[in-house]
Amino acid sequence: MTNANKIGEIEGLGEIYQVALPLDEQIKAFAEDGILPPYLATPEEIAQIRLAGLSNDFCRIR
Questions:
Q1: Predicted pLDDT of residue 62
Q2: Contact yes or no for 14/52 (Cβ under 8 A)
Q3: Which alpha helices (DSSP H) does 4-56 contain, by range?
Q4: Is residue 46 within 8 Å of 61, Cβ to Cβ?
Q5: Rounded distance, CA 23 to CA 21, Å?
Q6: What pLDDT was estimated at residue 1?
Q7: Measuring CA to CA, which residue among 1, 11, 6 is closest to residue 55?
Q8: Which of 9, 19, 48, 51 could form a disulfide with 4 if both were Cys (CB 3.0 to 4.6 A apart)?
Q9: Could you give the CA distance from residue 27 to residue 32 in angstroms, rounded to a whole number?
Q10: DSSP state, residue 21
């Protein structure tokens, strides 16, 4: 299984991880790496991630 990749850190959000898998496999990858829920970013968090320049890729929102 592909592990989650740490792509950076944002003050107030913490460490930011990315993984490109179907949702059930994403959750397994996060759990295997010790990353705790919530696994999905809110639209506001995604905006912060993009404004910080960490990622402009795809995203899932809750």
A1: 63
A2: no
A3: 23-32, 43-51
A4: yes
A5: 6
A6: 54
A7: 6
A8: 19
A9: 9
A10: S
